[in-house]
Amino acid sequence: MDDHEFRLHLKIEVRELDLWVEQGWLVPAMREGRRRFGDADLARARLILDLTHRMGVNEAGVDLIMDLVDQLHGMRGTMRQLVTAINRQDAKIRQRLLGALGELDDIGRL
Fold it and tell me: 109 falls in which pLDDT band (50, 70, 90)?
């Protein structure tokens, strides 16, 4: 969706959207020199709205939270790759890996 549709959907002003993009909280795709927003952008924007409007989080707090969200998203991708790699292993190796992970989990509980 374009800027106008995006802002209407969220009920925000141009100035607010521009700030979010300048801060790097949203990174829209560019097509024909215009910003285009997708579903992921909409989800991020809703989070930003919740943080700023409903919870009163300041810009520095939103920066930190969005950075943590991005880190978490990256870690989830890495975990998916790890699970895929484990699942491609021979059953015996898979069992050893899962056993080792269980041992690490037990150690973490101490």
Answer: low
